[in-house]
Design goal:
The chain is of the alpha/beta class. Helices cover 25% and strands 25% of the residues.
Length: 456
């Protein structure tokens, strides 16, 4: 009798091969090819069902309603709060503040909503207790344990009967039924699948902490992001206090929300209005600065672009930027030199944002162009002005999305004038707009602000 052929499949993308290889031939991931069970002949027959199908109008909504955690910005990222039985995957770089945030969330949840179980696989219980005392995250109904064995974690869930579970992190827990190493693809998939099944069966909200790779993506099998209900990215610069929770996937709410936090030695607090962190204070106009309005999720935030132009002693002038998209900055500089007649080929150009902000959307193009032009001419842009617009290769200024929301935020923060693309639509009262169609019209503001913004 002929021996059945073996099949090996990549757990990341599903690529199959007849022999084992260390690297997937499709997605190029290492260590993701495992032996797959041979398919059995025959067709699937009808079987028992868990519950009878019912009209959609008769389906209850209580199990899908969210409950606030008490951390305002975390609830914003989740779309209102935690849902019974929901599984959230929170990923971020080491030391960014994931454990501090989740410890605060579990403590607030334990005070108002019910028992919470915090499982740590990276620290001892004493270390977590010290952080909780320092940040004020203490609660009688908050249970803490340090485990790296999946069976022990399940036992704790049976004994505590929590309404919220936090596992920090999913890469440190292993199942004793598997021989693969801790943190491997097989172990991570097994641990996550087991906890997802428990969360769904018992209606327990569960938060899984995940590590990230060097390129910033979530470590482990990609199938995790498809199995969980919500995927959050916790981001922040180590040199800045600002931290953001960005929603990547959300089955219970919008998938484009962003929550802002302030991380200090005494803990982490929500920032409902973080605009002030992205602006610097100048007593007088300074050349090389320009204000724009970016949109993070659904929230408009003001950001400041700074530029410095200096003579270059190198054959190839230096180009350096921080907080901006390098490709877009290079394009804007080429347009500025070619269409705006600003000589940059013999000068070093440095561009940066204030407060660790990331301005990577096209709406910041005009602010970059104005800041560099202002620095090159040593003429400041007008005080109280914001700029909004995408710069095209032909030198045209294009429209951006959410222009009315951006202008309303600028007016709320006290700005009185705005440089915008043509046809801006309804303009909020209290702010005056100047429409510019081309780079040349925008540069005229730097050359002669009085002519660009006449009093009458």
């Amino acid at each position: 009798m002929a021996k059945a052929a073996q099949t090996f499949r990549c757990v990341e993308c599903g690529w199959t091969t007849s022999k084992w290889v260390g690297r997937c031939g499709e997605c190029q991931a290492w260590g993701t090819v495992d032996e797959a069970a041979s398919p059995r002949a025959g067709t699937t027959q009808a079987g028992p069902v868990n519950r009878t199908a019912q009209p959609i109008v008769a389906v209850g909504l209580e199990v899908a309603r969210s409950r606030p955690t008490g951390v305002e910005e975390f609830d914003r990222a989740l779309g209102g709060g935690l849902v019974q039985g929901a599984v959230i995957l929170l990923a971020g770089e080491p030391g960014v503040g994931k454990s501090t945030l989740l410890l605060d969330v579990t403590a607030r949840w334990a005070e108002d909503a019910g028992r919470a179980l915090y499982v740590t696989g990276e620290e001892s219980t004493a270390q977590v207790r010290l952080r909780a005392e320092r940040t004020g995250a203490m609660a009688d109904q908050l249970f803490l344990t340090a485990e790296t064995d999946l069976s022990a974690v399940l036992t704790h869930i049976d004994e505590v009967k929590p309404t919220l579970i936090v596992l920090d992190s999913v890469q440190t827990v292993a199942s004793p039924a598997l021989d693969s190493p801790v943190g491997g693809v097989t172990q991570v998939r097994e641990v996550a699948s087991t906890l997802i099944r428990v969360a769904k069966e018992r209606g327990v909200a569960t938060v899984l902490v995940g590590h990230v790779t060097k390129d910033g993506s979530i470590a482990g099998p990609r199938v995790l992001e498809h199995l969980v209900d919500v995927v959050l990215h916790f981001e922040g610069d180590r040199n800045s206090r600002l931290r953001t929770v960005r929603t990547v996937k959300n089955r219970y709410g919008p998938a484009d929300e962003v929550g802002c936090f302030d991380l200090t030695d005494t803990g982490i607090t929500s920032l409902p209005d973080p605009t002030g962190l992205f602006l610097s204070r100048h007593a007088a106009p300074v050349p090389g600065t320009c204000i724009t309005v970016t949109v993070e999720g659904r929230r408009p935030l003001l950001g400041e672009v700074q530029a410095l132009v200096a003579p270059s002693a190198l054959n190839t002038p230096r180009r350096a930027n921080s907080g901006l998209d390098s490709n877009r900055v290079s394009m804007v500089l080429a347009v500025l030199e070619r269409r705006g007649r600003v000589v940059l080929s013999t000068r070093d150009v440095y561009t940066s944002t204030v407060g660790g902000a990331r301005l990577v959307e096209p709406a910041a193009d005009l602010a970059v162009l104005m800041a560099v032009a202002s620095a090159a001419a040593q003429e400041p842009t007008p005080m109280g002005m914001v700029t909004l617009g995408e710069v095209g290769l032909a030198g045209e200024i294009r429209g951006v999305t959410g222009l009315q929301r951006r202008l309303a935020e600028a007016e709320r923060m006290g700005f009185t004038t705005a440089l915008v693309p043509p046809d801006p639509g309804p303009v909020p009262p209290g702010i005056r707009v100047v429409e510019v169609e081309h780079v040349g019209a925008a540069l005229a503001v730097v050359a002669d602000p009085a002519a660009a913004f006449p009093l009458n």
